[in-house]
Each structure stands twice: as structure tokens, then as C-alpha cells.
Design a protein that fits this description.
The complex is a heterodimer. By secondary structure, chain A is of the alpha/beta class. The mean pLDDT of chain A is 95. Chain A contains 13 helices and twelve strands. In chain A, helix 4 links the parallel strand 4 and strand 5. Chain A has one domain: 3-Layer(aba) Sandwich (Peroxisomal Thiolase, Chain A, domain 1), CATH 3.40.47.10. In chain B, strand 1 and strand 2 form a beta hairpin. Chain B starts with a helix and ends in a 7-residue tail after the last strand. Classes of the chains: A alpha/beta, B mainly beta. At the A-B interface, helix 3, helix 4 and strand 12 of A face helix 2, strand 7 and strand 8 of B.
């Protein structure tokens, strides 16, 4: 492949809640699982946040970081990878063409493939860029799992939100990381899903135990095998990996089944700090890796969409990853910048409380 | 709430991108766009995208909101003095009312302004949040 990442941007909700705060209400899981599954804090969506606002914030940051080399008018495509778009019918990407101030002549679309929506969107965008159909493409992976997880569901301990944007280009002299190759594995299997008209995501195979991760393994293993066979690379050729991290057990399973080393994976797992950011989860881990990467590192990305598919791709960082390293807004800074809330506030913010349709008339 | 289709479409530049105007005569930046420069009274129709950075000039906290804003209570409304000069009224977000102070550096962020009841679209627009690490939590 002759494309790569020119810049990237990230956004997560500023409000957070501790898992223990949720547990005090529901007590529906043994707290010993918190350590086992790396459950710590998760993002709480502000009342006026959604997938589109997070995606806009991440997109603005990616554009600002490349403003000196990429004129916005040369961006030819905008893909929003998400399973939780605020509109069921109408492309949120079209709204974002306006919020980001892009040319109305960009090819814009929402791309949905569960939690790997962002990865899928990036591979599609990369093909357009490589074919010369567009000069640059902006790809944003964003999800709001927290708004779409029911109170009292075990997934609530990790359900979070976030967005990560990648500006994809093909000029070697502009890339902080060059995309190398990819492989995928896609078939129908039961895992987390949401039927049209439903608000809440349901577990197709439970939250814990082997069966809960059956979908993960049946996608990750064949995708990784296909990647290694097609590329001739081995796990030892990589320095770091961004892997599925809905809970802390998933990186361990991925690591074991794909033959990765613990130190290639675990330092870049952010589950305990921010929870499961859905489509932004693995991209956030990748952004964290790029924040600190040296030139010439090969980074692997394994992104699994629940019951939908798994992509594995590799990229190699260039000297620009050090020269153009962001001076502020690093992933760790975003994770540290937070306001802790209690469970009642989280329910109010995420609009999970039944309310009177006549709130004002109670007083006036 | 009534759908204001034409108004929402007409205002999207200023709501989404803080798109104001620059006076071609005296170079004053104008927001919201008004086509006549408030300084030199000359025609001013050049679009100008403001940076979105500024500081809190003054503020007040709302506990009893108008319809459509119930979800955000309590929220702080501020007069924000933008770097380029214009003063605009906007909601602050991602900050507790007690942590807001005059002179606090803020930046624009796109958020939901309100939803138009069960049948309308979602209205997005500008709010302002503290610059990263400008508030100690």
C-alpha cells in the first residue's frame, strides 16, 4: 500500500464514573471480576454529547495538526465509522462536512461494521486515496456505547464513548505512519447486537466466560492467520499492537491466540482508564501508540467488530512521527482531564431516567 | 417545538463553524454576521471563520431553563470574548458552574444545542469548554 496517516486526533467524554460507583447500586457482578477484566473507570456521555460531537472534536484536532501541510479543500472523502450514529436514517458524516467546514464536494458516508467500523472505513478510504480518486480522506471512528447500554446490564461497567480521526494521504513526505498491508475475516456470528428501533445493545453471547469471547476468537484467529500467511511477517516483526479491549480479558485472549508478546500489547490497553469506546477503542490505543512511537516501528492493529468481522493491518512509523509529534492533546492527557460523577448523574446525563413530559409545568 | 428548517439551514455556518465576517475596510471581525460593519458602517460580507478561542468575560448559571434545555441544568451561560474581538453569548460545557471564573481561557466545541421534540432533527451548535488543564478538578 502507498498510503498512510498524515495526522490524527482524539476525543473522549470529560465525565467519568468509577465501576465501584455503579456496583454500589446493582451489585450484579462479583467485584473480583473488576481486576480480572481491567474494569476501572469509564466515560460518561455529557447530556449534549453524541457520536457526531465527539467525531467532530476528533476531526477538528486531526485537521488542525495537519493544517500547515494539507489544505482542507484537498480533502476528498469523509467517512464516519460508527455503530451508534445519532441518526438511523441520514448520514451523520454529511452533518460533519459542515461542522468541519469541508468542501461540499467530498464523498461522505457513514460506515457501519460494529466496533470495527473505523477500521473498515480507514481501509475503504485508503483504497480511494491509493487509487488517486481523492488526495486526502478523513476517517473518523466514533461510538457512544454508554448511551446504548441499559442500566443494570453488566456491560454498563465498561460502556464508554470516544472518537479518533485519521487523515489519510499518500505523499511519503507527509506521512507519520505508512500503511503496509491488511487482511480480514468476516462472517455471521452471534455477539453484541442492536436491532433497528432498539436503543440498547444486547449481548448475543453473555458478558463473561468463554462463550462471551467466542465471537472474538472465531474472528481474530483466522484474521491474524490470514495476515501472517499473506504478509510473511511474524509477531516478532512488530514492536507494538493495538488490540480489541472491550474488557481486559480480550487483549489477553487476542495475545495468546495470535501469538503476541505481553509487552507488545498490554502497555497500550486503555480499558481500565476509559472503558470500551466501541469503534474508537482500538483506534484510541493506536493513537496512544503513535503519541509515543519512534521512527521505523512496525505497529499492528487488530480490530474486532462484534459478530461482524476482524481486520488486521500493519503500519510502519516514519521519521515524521517524531518530528510532528503533537505538543498537546496526547491521549494520556485527555484521559487525565476528567470530572468524576456519581451514578445518578451518569443516568441523568445519558438520558436513562424516565421523566415527566411536562417538567416546567410542575412549577409554573 | 416547531421545526425551523430555513432558519437552521441559514444559521449553520455560524453555529457549526463560528463563521462570521471580516470588514474589508477596517478589518474588524464581525460575529454574528450582519453584512454592515458595526465599526465603520461600511458593507462587510467577507466570510471569516473565527478561531473559537477566547476567555470568559462574565457568566451566569441557569437552574430554571427554557423548554428544550432541561437536560443541561444547571448550566452556565457566558459572554465569551473571542481572540479576534467579537463578544458572543454561549453555553459553557465540561465544567462545573463553581469552577467557572472571569478570564478563564475557553475554546469552542460542537455540541447538541437542543432536540426539536420527538419529530424534529437534532440541532448542533457551538458551546465553549475550558482549555485542557485550565481548570483544576
Amino acid at each position: 500500500m502507498e498510503t498512510g496517516i498524515v495526522s490524527y486526533g482524539t476525543a473522549v467524554p470529560k465525565h467519568r464514573i468509577e465501576a465501584d460507583e455503579i456496583w454500589q447500586v446493582w451489585k450484579n457482578i462479583s467485584p473480583q471480576f473488576f481486576d480480572m477484566l481491567s474494569i476501572g473507570e469509564r466515560g460518561v456521555l455529557g447530556p449534549e454529547e453524541d457520536t457526531l460531537t465527539l467525531a467532530t472534536a476528533a476531526g477538528e484536532q486531526a485537521l488542525a495538526r495537519a493544517a500547515d501541510i494539507v489544505p482542507q479543500a484537498r480533502i476528498g472523502a469523509l467517512f464516519l465509522g460508527s455503530g451508534t450514529s445519532p441518526y438511523a436514517t441520514k448520514a451523520a458524516a454529511s452533518v460533519m462536512v459542515d461542522t468541519l467546514g469541508l468542501s461540499p464536494h467530498v464523498l461522505a458516508a457513514d460506515v457501519q461494521c460494529a466496533e470495527k467500523s473505523g477500521s473498515t472505513a480507514l481501509l475503504l478510504a485508503s483504497a480511494l486515496v491509493e487509487a488517486g480518486q481523492v488526495d486526502y480522506a478523513l476517517v473518523i471512528a466514533a461510538d457512544t456505547m454508554n448511551r446504548h447500554t441499559a442500566p443494570g446490564m453488566v456491560l454498563e461497567y465498561v460502556a464508554s464513548a470516544g472518537a479518533v480521526a485519521f487523515l489519510v494521504g499518500r505523499k511519503e513526505a507527509e506521512l507519520v505512519a505508512r500503511l503496509e498491508r491488511w487482511a480480514t475475516h468476516t462472517w455471521d456470528q452471534n455477539d453484541y447486537f442492536r436491532v433497528e428501533g432498539d436503543r440498547y445493545i444486547q449481548p448475543g453471547a453473555g458478558f463473561y466466560g468463554w462463550v462471551a469471547n467466542w465471537g472474538l476468537l472465531e474472528h481474530v484467529i483466522p484474521a491474524a492467520q490470514a495476515f501472517f500467511e499473506q504478509s510473511g511477517l511474524t509477531a516478532d516483526d512488530f514492536s507494538k499492537f493495538a488490540v480489541p479491549q472491550k474488557t481486559g480479558i480480550r487483549p489477553l485472549m487476542t495475545m495468546g491466540k495470535a501469538g503476541l508478546d505481553m509487552m507488545q500489547v498490554l502497555p497500550y490497553v486503555l480499558t481500565a482508564q476509559i472503558g470500551d469506546c466501541g469503534a474508537a477503542s482500538v483506534p484510541l490505543s493506536l493513537a496512544h501508540i503513535l503519541d509515543w512511537a519512534d521512527a521505523g516501528e512496525r505497529v499492528g492493529v487488530i480490530d474486532y467488530g462484534s459478530g461482524a468481522g476482524c481486520d488486521m493491518w500493519s503500519l510502519v512509523t516514519t521519521a515524521l512521527v517524531e518530528e510532528r509529534r503533537p505538543s498537546s492533546g496526547l491521549v494520556m492527557e485527555l484521559l487525565d482531564d476528567k470530572i468524576m460523577v456519581d451514578y445518578a448523574t451518569a443516568l441523568k446525563y445519558e438520558q436513562k431516567l424516565l421523566r415527566s413530559p411536562h417538567q416546567l409545568s410542575n412549577f409554573y | 417545538m416547531t421545526n425551523k428548517i430555513a432558519q437552521d439551514w441559514r444559521l449553520k455556518g455560524q453555529r457549526y463553524r463560528l463563521e462570521g465576517e471580516e470588514c474589508p475596510h477596517c478589518k474588524v471581525k464581525i460575529f454574528p454576521p450582519r453584512d454592515i460593519c458595526p465599526e465603520c458602517k461600511q458593507p462587510a460580507k467577507e466570510p471569516y471563520r473565527l478561531s473559537g478561542r477566547g476567555e470568559v468575560y462574565t457568566f451566569s448559571t441557569v437552574h430554571t431553563p427554557p423548554a428544550g434545555f432541561e437536560d443541561y441544568v444547571p448550566y452556565t451561560v457566558a459572554l465569551v470574548k473571542l481572540e479576534e474581538g467579537p463578544m458572543i453569548t454561549a453555553q459553557l460545557t465540561d465544567v462545573a458552574p463553581e469552577d467557572v471564573s472571569i478570564g478563564m481561557p475557553v475554546e469552542m466545541v460542537t455540541r447538541r444545542m437542543r432536540t426539536q421534540g420527538d419529530e424534529g432533527t437534532i440541532i448542533y451548535g457551538y458551546k465553549f469548554r475550558p482549555l485542557l488543564h485550565s481548570v483544576s478538578n
